[in-house]
Task: structure prediction
Amino acid sequence: MAIALRLAMRQWKARPLRPVLCSLAIAAAVALIISVGAAFDSLMYSMRSSIGQMLGVAEIHIRPTQRRTGAVIPAEMIAGLEKRPEIEMVSGRIRNFSVLTKGEEHRWFDTMGIDPVQDEQLRPKLMASGVPLSGKPDEIMIDATVAELMQLHLGEAAEFSTDGGECREVRVVGIIKRPTIELLSKPMVFVPIKSLAADLKVSLEFSTADVKLRGVEDIDGYVKKLQKELGATMQVDAGLGSKARLGDETKTIQMGLSLLSVISGICAALIIGTTLSVGVQERVRQFGQLRCIGASRKQLAMLLAADAFLLLMAGMVVGMLLGVVLSLVVVKMLPQFFIGYKISGLSLLMGLLNGCLSTVAGSLIPMWQVMRVTPMAAVTNSGQRAGAGGVRRAAMIGLVCIGAQLLLWFLVPSREVRFQAYLYVGLPMIFVGYTLLGPGVLVLLERVGAPVLGTLLGVKPALLRSAWSRTPWRAGAMIAALMIGVALLVAVRGRGESIMKSWVFPTRFPDIFAYSVTAITPKRVEAMRGKYPQVTEVTSLAAFPVAMPNGVFDVGKMMAKSSTTFVAIDPGAFSTMLELDFVQGDPKTAVAQLARGGHIFVAREFQVARNLGVGDKIAFTGSDGKPVQFTIAAVVTANGVDMVKSYFDMRSAFADQSVSSVLGSIADAQKHFKLRDVNLMLMNIDAGGHSPEAMKAFRDDLSRDGVQSASSVEMKTSLRDLIWKIVDTMSLIAVGALAVASLGVANMVIASVHARRYEFGVLRAIGAGRWQLIRLVLAEVTLISVVAGVLGALAGLHFTYMGTRVDRLLIGFPTEFLDTDPAGRWVAALIYLGLGAAVTTALAWAAAIIPAVRGAYAAQRALLAGGRG
Result:
C-alpha cells in the first residue's frame, strides 16, 4: 500500500485541482450529515433543558386522565406510593392561578405549588438569576416573562393573592430563564406547595406527581403495571429519563437523518466514481505500461484504492470542520429554538461513516474498470466511447425504480409495512431512479439541444452534435451532483407550501382569541360585555384531551399513544363566530344535535384516520373510567380550533400526542368529563377597535384582568412566520449542497477540457477564437444543468407528493399537493421546474467559467501537444 500511496500522491501533485474538488464532494456529504446531526443534538438538548421544567426528568409522571376538569391526585395515593420500596421519591404539584400586584400593576398568572427540595431534583430549572425556593412562605420564583410584564427584579417585593382579594407580601428569590421555545410555556409563578394550599384553604391534593424509582430496569413495564393498579382515572407515563415520550418524538427526526445520509452518500459516491473513472480513462496507457512490466490487477486496484483513500482523508477532515461550522450558524440563527450547542459522537460517526461508505461505493466501478485493462489494449487505446445500450438500460432501471416505489406504496395493505417500506426502500429508490434517468434524457435531448443552444450562444451546431453522447456517464455525474440540492430545496419549499395551502386561514374568524387564568362563567362574560363596550360578540370554550379505548394508529411505537382533544363549545354562538366547513352533514341539523347532547363534530383528519363519518358512533373514556358513546353529527374543518389550542397550550403537544380534535357541547363535557373551568374565549370587537393602538390598549386591559390574548392577525402572522422560518432553515442545507455540487461540476468540466485539449488545439488552429471555445463549453454545460434542474425538481415534487401521502397515513391530515386548486397546482409545479433549471444553470456556469477560460487561453502548442484523447 505504501508504494500505491506514493504513486497516488505524485499523481495528485501533478494535477491538484481535480482531487481537491473531489475531496470537497466527500466533505459535502460528511458536512451535511454532521451539520444536521449537530443541529438535531442541539435541539434535543434545548428541548430537554426547557421542557424538563414542565415534564421533568423523573422516571414516571402521574396525572388525572381528565385534566383541566378539576380532577386531582389524592394525598392518600401519594402517601401509598411513597411507602413502596421500589420508589425512591414522589413529588406532587398543585396548579392554580394567582394575582401579582406591584404598585398599580396587577396581573393574573398560572401558579405552581411545588416541594422546594424534591421538585428541584425532579424538574430542574434553568435560573437566569437568584436561587430556587427554600420553602419559606414569603418566597416566590417567577419566570423571565413574568419579570418583564411586572417589571419585577430579584429581591423585590410584591403582593400575592389566589382570589384577587386577600393579599400577602412575597419576595422574588429567583428568576427562571425564558423558555427556549416560547410557545411551549405560559408565564408561571412558583411558590412553596404548603403556602399555596394554605392560601387556597384546601388540603393537599395534587395536579401532577413525579416519581423517582430505585432499582427498576424495565421502566416501561413498571409503568404498565402501575397504570393497571391506579385505574383508568389516572394516567401514568414514562418520563424523559427512560425510553421516554421525548425519545419517541425524536424518532422521526432520526429517521430523517438516516435518509439524508443515504441520499447524500449516493450523490457523493456518484461524483467520486465519475472522477476516478475519468482518471482511469486518462491513464489507460500508464496502467497498460504497469501491466507490461509485471503489475498485477490487484496492484492496479490498490493504486486506485490509494487515490480514493487520499480523497477520503482530505474530505473527512474538511467535512467535519464544515459540518460543525454550518451547524453553529444554524444554532446562532435560531436562538428561539436552541439554548446551546451540542454535538454527539453518534452524529460525528454517522457523518464519517457516510463519507467512508460513499467513497467505497464510488470506487467500485473504477476499480472494476482498471482491473479489466489488458496490456495490449492499453498501449493502443486511450479510452473507449460509451455505448448507447448502457445508457438505455440505466434509464429503464430508473423508470422501474420510480414505478416500483409508487406500486410499493399503493399496493401494500398494511400501514406499518407501507410506512417502513417507503422510509427505507422507497425514498432511496426515488432519488436513484431520477439519477439514472439523467444520461438517457440528456442523450435524448441532444438533437434538439444542439441547434437551440448553438443558436443562442453563437456556436456552430455541428460542434455540439455529439457533445453529450460522447461522455454520457461523466455528464450523468454532473446531473447527480446538482440534482440532490435541487431535490432537497424543492421538497422542503414544496412541503412548506403544501402545509400552508392546506391550512387555510378561515374567512370568518374572531378578532381576539383569549385565555383566562380564572374560570369564564356566564356572569363573567356578561360583566366583560359591560366593561368593554367595544366587544360585540363573545363566546367561551374549553379544550382538553380525552382518552380512547383503543389507539388511533398502529404505525410504529411513536404513534402508539394517541389522544384526541375534546373542544367544548356553545354550539349556537360558536358556529356564528368561527367558520366551520361541513364536509359531511347538514349544518342546521348538526348544530341542533350538538346542542341536544350525545353528538359530536369530528375533524376531517379524524375522519381520514379512522374512516368514520356521519351517523357512526365512537367512545371516549369518561371521568369515571367508563366508556361514553357519542354519535358523529358532522365532519368539519375548523382550522381556527386547532390554531387556538396550539397557540395557547403548546405544552400539550409534547405531553399528549393529540391526533385531532372533536367538537362537543359544554354541557356534555361537564356531564361526562366533569369539566370544571372554561378558560378560552372568542371575541369580536367593533371596527373602531381594529387599529393597532386600540388593539394594544384593549389587550393590555385584558391582561390586567387575567386574560392573555392574541389578535387573529398576530396569530396568523406568528404561526406562518414560524413555519417559514423552519422551512428557510432547512433550505440552507439544500443551498449548501447546491453550492458544493457546483464544485463537482467544476471538477467534471476540468476533466472534460483536459480530455479534449487536442480538439481545442485543432479548433484554435483552424481559426476558432478563445471566446468561441468558452461558449462551446458553456453550451455543453447548459443542457446538462437544465436536465439536472428539471429532474431534480421532479424528484423534489415527487418527495413532496409522497409527503402528503405520509400525512394522511400517519396523522390523518389531508395536506394537498402544492395547492388546493388543480390549476394552481400545475402553475406551482411549473414554477419549481423553471426555478430548478435556472438555479442549476447559474451554478453550472459559475463553476464552469474558470476551467473553460483556462482551457481556451492555454497556448495552442500546449493544446496540440496533449495528443488525441
About this structure: Residues 180-184, 241-249, 551-562, 645-659 have pLDDT under 50 and may be disordered. The first strand starts at residue 60 and ends at 64. The CA atoms of residues 502 and 815 lie 5 Å apart.
